[in-house]
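Re: that chain you flagged

S.,

Sorry for the slow reply, it's been a week of failed gels. I finally had a moment to sit down with the sequence you sent. For the record, here it is as I used it:
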Amino acid sequence: MQWDVALAQFRDYLAVERNYSPRTVEQYLRDVGAFKKSLDLRRGGPRAPDKLDAIDVRHHLANLFHADQPATIGKKLSSIRAFFRFLAKRGVTSGNPARAIRGPKKKRGLPRALDVDDAFRLVEAPTAAPRPTKRRLGKSEETRHAAFRLRDRALFEVLYGAGLRVSEAAALDLADLDRDRYGTLMVTVRRGKGGKSRMVPLGAKAQEALDLWITARGALARDREALFVNKGGRRLTARSIQRETQSWRVAAGIAERATPHSLRHSFATHLLDGGVDLRSIQELLGHASLSSTQIYTKISLDHLTKVYDGAHPRAGK
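Prediction finished late last night. Pasting the structure tokens below so you have them in one place:
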């Protein structure tokens, strides 16, 4: 199988069978394309994918150490593994030459969680904190700006109240909100990581914010399904959510770096601090493995240590 055919079929496999997002698919193809380019330079010309071996993979990884961090190298190795795994499934290769290759060890950093006060300030900022504008707005523009403030408030309430990933929040539809079946508002995450779905409850504050936004949304939305829309009436993108979060962080005067994912981390950390068990938090976050959730125990212990050191009269050195 030639490279162009292999890459085209790999793209279809990732997009259709694995149900990966277009951005993720492009990242996989970019990593595999860089691997091919490295091989061409090393060997002085192209070599078919079924003729490659572990030495080719190791040589490519060795070249990456000069420019990339261990975490980045690990991700690129993962893409190459997935490519060879796909070829093996199709019978193009007899095995996966990248399977036994271990990536570089990487230091696992702790997720960035906001403290409760900062989380509240960020979530409430769109309807509480003034955001400067470059010019004076007319009455109709003021009305639109007020509506999108309600959108951002509802968006942040959902991110913090349900612990959603930014891509999951962007993909929400109006139909994903269920108010009747369980006696409380439930949000169905249909496009979770790996194509998995889950249901997460939302509290009273999130319900109130969503009700206000949905009422205002009617006159703004061109996309009939999307819960959160942009100023053009189309579905709000993950990148736009990231920009809005940064803008409101500044408006709220929060010094610490805050992202949509910070609200997800804060959701998990604050639940753990409140006594919720790890298994329940795992289900709410949509983690496939409990080990992914256990990182939050370290955050809570660090927080307790700081509180103790700052408050206990015998903690000083």
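What I noticed first: The chain has a mean pLDDT of 85.

Talk soon,
D.
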